[in-house]
Design brief:
single chain; 41% helix; alpha/beta; nuclease activity; five-stranded mixed β-sheet; two-stranded antiparallel ribbon; metal-binding
């Protein structure tokens, strides 16, 4: 029996006849390549994710008009299609066959060492700006970044396999990367030694800490040059992660025209889906929409502190001997 959705308007003498849209099951009508191109995940991953969602949210059904419920599969495909296009909800709903009303309801350390022989690296940290529409006149300026447009400044940590290990989405575009880090739960965890005797790698926007290593601005010795070279190659994982994430789910590369709460949810959801794709070793698929050129937002250098013993000892006892 076909799954049908009716339009939002009730028919009467003064309106056009009610129109129905057939909800197509794209897991059967599209081949594997076409499916992954449109939904960014393969069929097996979508099926596993659907079963997981139903297991943890057994009542995951959205009421359509006249009891034409939207199935968990169609809700999932709606979300994935939106993440793939970053387009208006009406266009996404038309693709799936759901009315607009229903749519709107809806071992790391070793890995880093293999890259550039940098020891004891837990992850790479950085921030990336996700464009949004200006929230409102009262707080809009808080979200305007140094390039002049409104964004959410998203802090993330990745591992050597480009998996997102930590994502924070609650800071406006005007916030400095170091401020976001200093106010984060992640910093508290690092300060209390939760991750052991390991390092994060962060750029010069971050403070140099016993658990967070930044580059040398003016390397002089051969050991210092090797340190910087290894740091650059290792820390590049976070830049690559952002690129892979945004190409697979262009919604985080384009301008989100959603409420702030929903924008935060989309960022987290696509980060989780990105990790699923990495775990499943899914090949990258090209975006269907043209993505804007990503120009880095200028970030002031953090001048906190002077000589830091932990970095100097690492260079003296390790990089000087390579």
């Amino acid at each position: 029996m076909s799954d049908w959705s009716e339009s939002d308007s009730d028919s009467d003498e003064n309106t056009a006849p009610r129109q129905y849209k057939e909800r197509v099951d794209y897991t059967t009508t599209l081949n594997s390549v076409e499916f992954q191109m449109r939904f960014r995940l393969d069929k097996a991953s979508v099926e596993q994710l659907e079963h997981l969602l139903v297991e943890i949210m057994p009542h995951l059904r959205v009421k359509g008009t006249r009891n034409h419920d939207v199935s968990p599969l169609h809700q999932l495909l709606l979300a994935l299609r939106f993440y793939a296009l970053g387009t208006m909800l009406l266009s996404v709903g038309d693709f799936i066959g759901v009315s607009l009303v229903c749519v709107c309801k809806s071992n790391t350390e070793d890995g880093f060492y293999r890259i550039a022989r940098f020891p004891r690296v837990q992850g790479a940290i950085d921030c990336t700006h996700v464009r949004i529409q200006s929230p409102c006149a009262e707080i809009g300026e808080e979200f305007r970044n140094r390039k002049g447009y409104p964004t959410i400044n998203v802090q993330a940590v990745c591992d050597s396999e480009l998996m997102l290990m930590n994502v924070g989405t609650w800071w406006p575009g005007s916030a400095h990367d170091a401020t976001i880090f200093n106010m984060s739960e992640l910093k508290i965890q690092l300060e209390t030694g939760m991750y052991g005797n390991k390092w994060l790698l962060g750029d010069s926007a971050y403070p140099l800490k016993p658990y967070l290593l930044t580059p040398l601005l003016n390397p002089e010795s051969r050991g210092e040059e090797l340190y910087n070279e290894s740091w650059i190659r290792s820390r590049n994982c976070i830049e690559r992660t952002f690129g892979v994430w945004k190409r697979r789910f262009p919604v985080v590369a384009l301008t989100m025209r959603l409420s702030l709460q929903n924008a935060h949810a989309v960022i987290i959801a696509t980060a989780v889906l990105h990790n699923i794709c990495r775990l499943q070793n899914l090949e990258e698929v090209p975006p269907e929409v043209e993505l804007p050129q990503i120009d880095p937002v200028p970030v002031p250098i953090n001048n906190e502190g002077g000589i830091h013993l932990h970095r100097e000892m690492l260079i003296a006892n390790y990089f000087n001997n390579l």
